[in-house]
């Protein structure tokens, strides 16, 4: 009994760390901008989009984390077991998408420091990149990373909660329109799902648990709870930002199209609100830098013993390259949008692989995957696959005309 409690206690920190790693990886600069943009467009009906996306996110996340845990393998190795070479394709997509997004994340960190201290975004991005690299220099990098994302996760949620109350949103209308929307936007649903569990993000916590040794059938209960908690943390942040934005626009105030989330914080709470935005933006960006680098590299570290041996150095190089590209080139908007759309394709591909793996005895042994989870997962694969392909065919070519 005593030993079990000790194991459970030591696991609790890891499970919480994995949940916050995933959640704060999702809550990046794009997350803040998308939420405020769609709230301004759809008003209270955006609550319905958030509700639908939460349901889809939980369905995708539970499937992925459970099969990673029960197979005791990372996603790329599961994919190679399903079909030789598939893991290399998945890893290439994740790393390319992760690198592009990390350039944007470094830019977001630079923007946060610019708001807080007035320094140029380039200098702020450089200092933030160096801080992120510093986390992986220390011996206990995993534990430091877990604590870092938890603390900043709580900071973001607490500050956004304060701004939400100062914005005085029409909560009754928001609740009503969440269940009876006047407008439904498919592109908003795709964007939110892609931003929460697209690309590398859905694997962040699952891979962290593998690294920490939380795996096997006996850990499934904890893994499932952690996976749902991660989505709820990210969704709480989204709901608070939605209500804060709704409060501002309901007063007839216009958001600055150049930086919608900053204007929400400023209009709701004046100059203090603007400084709070700086803290939230920096926290969102720097935790995404850490989560993105860690997870992207976790997709290649099993391919060769040397990659496994030097994986921390590869993570640091990944962050350094992202920082250098941001300082030299800036944020290449068209490339980010293109890779963002490709990121949307990673979810149906990866989740499809996971669902096939769930029924391969050589991967999961005698584990029986719940049928309702499989059906749920298949619906997500088909819906996200269709919507992502539609966006790539119809919207992306217009960017490069």
UniProtKB/TrEMBL annotation:
Organism ancestry: Bacteria, Bacillati, Bacillota, Bacilli, Bacillales
Protein name (database record): Divalent metal cation transporter
Top-level taxon: Bacteria
Main localization category: membrane
Keywords: Membrane, Transmembrane, Transmembrane helix
Source organism of this protein record: Sporosarcina saromensis
Cellular compartments annotated: Membrane
Membrane topology per record: Multi-pass membrane protein
Keyword Membrane: yes
Entry's transmembrane regions: 42-60, 81-103, 123-139, 151-172, 184-206, 227-254, 274-298, 310-329, 335-359, 371-393
